[in-house]
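Friendly challenge for the regulars: who can give me the structure tokens for this chain first? No prize, just bragging rights.
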Amino acid sequence: MKRKSFRAVVASALVTTALSLSIGGFATISLRDSQIETVDQQLQKIVDAVRSNPESPVSSALDAASEEDFNITIAIVSSDKEITIINESKLLLGTLPQDSLLAAALISPVTVEDRENYRLLAQVISGGDRLIFADSLSEIEESFSSNLERLLIFTASADLVAIAISALLLARNKRKLEAESLLRMQQFLADASHDLRTPLTIIKGYSELLSKGQITNPEDRGRAFERVNSEIIRMENLIHDLLLLAELGETSRPIFAELDLSDLLTSYSHDFATLNPDRQIVEEIESGVMIEGSLEHLRRLIQNVFNNIARHTPVNASVKVNLGRQGTKVLLSIEDGGAGLPSGGYRDGVTALNRFDTSRSPETGGSGLGLSIIAAIVSEHEGTLNLRKSNLGGLAVEIIF
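First reply, four minutes later:
Bragging rights claimed.
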């Protein structure tokens, strides 16, 4: 339970982080790209002014920059690569960029990485010289870094809020589950104590009668000893089931191994058919269905299902056994043609500490803890136990691994 809660909290934090970074990151990058596009448009306006007046390119560039109030560095680069600044700005243009960047800048704006990164656009003028136009990216980069920092702070804050909310919801849910578990445990203990008290009362009564010599007839004495012996066997079965439930409730899981569930189910189904010749048994068992599990506990699970059918249905009630794959899951279903459960007995996601025989009648035999054992074993194997109305008219025990 703690591991699942931890996973849920981590999952909520990861989802919050992914959403914050994806949405915030997209917005931050889009803003930076928009600001760079604005710089490119300013550079392009000056180049367009130069191209429209090729006879006086320098004055056209200066006039365009002045009219638009563009804070852009304008320089002339001679054919021998001497640079002359004709319009200064906040950008301190040092050495010329590489020839490849200058060539690319004649086509479209490029980013030059220097002591201070900038955008560059160039235009060839008469005499083979080039006019270059550059605008600093420092403010845009500072804004981008600041926005990223804010985004990280916001993401961390959102993660803390998501973790706090998840932990609060999980804590509330845990308290609710613990309360429900406590109620089931109280009912379970009441049922178990009743089952233990009944045979003890019978054994104690017959023992007193026999010890005081109040049963003198040999046949009556024989029946009394037989009844005491049957109640002792019943207590042994009950204690064995309680010990198994306690074992299944331990935090440490038994050693699991890959096993053939098809062979295991087929074996028990054939045994059940042999011991119940009056029943019509239909098998639809897919071969080669492998799962990871405890062989001993899965044997007990299948045996308990068949034992409950034998105890709670007529001797001629039909049975249907299904096993197959559904994608990545394995579906095991055992149906009977008995009377089924009361209308409120059918439900999905059955947990431990429930009983098939809520009447606690000793006449049916067994401990009445069959469903608890089945549910505990299914839970141990991280499966789901559902009780449904069978198409045969009785109960369908459906287990999904």
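Residues 254-400 form a domain with the Heat Shock Protein 90 fold (CATH 3.30.565.10). Residues 356-367 have pLDDT under 50 and may be disordered. Your move, everyone else.
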